[in-house]
Amino acid sequence: xxxxxxxxxxxxxxxxxxxxxxxxxxxxxxxxxxxxxxxxxxxxxxxxxxxxxxxxxxxxxxxxxxxxxxxxxxxxxxxxxxxxxxxxxxxxxxxxxxxxxxxxxxxxxxxxxxxxxxxxxxxxxxxxxxxxxxxxxxxxxxxxxxxxxxx
Length: 151
Hints:
Layout (H helix, E strand, L loop, with lengths): L1 E6 L5 E4 L4 E3 L2 E3 L2 E7 L8 E4 L5 E5 L3 E3 L3 E9 L9 E9 L10 E6 L2 E7 L7 E9 L5 E9 L1
Parallel strand pairs: 8-14
Antiparallel strand pairs: 1-5, 2-3, 2-6, 4-5, 7-9, 9-12, 10-11, 10-13, 13-14
């Protein structure tokens, strides 16, 4: 069923959280409107922000030691590099050299556009080139960081 949804706001950016994409909106007479096609018995979940999501960054060290702790921050920013004032859904994958997901991989809420993860590396984890991938789930924008984990 095709319909037009109206929001009592003059501007904003809308994201389809079910499909992970930006929704096209228009402003008409001080009301923000968007079209959506609901399938039979289907629902939708939308997020509205005052600024557009432009970039995802992973700030992590270049090296870490097995048996130690690694901290990294994922930031979701606008086109000026400022963190968004929202709780943004983020999927983080921490991949060992064999491509296996490590502990602390999962789904997070980036409060105020940022999430910091503290990851304990076990002494028996694989040394080598590890990757941290972060995908912001509202816009689908992602980033990746590579680091070396040493014994």
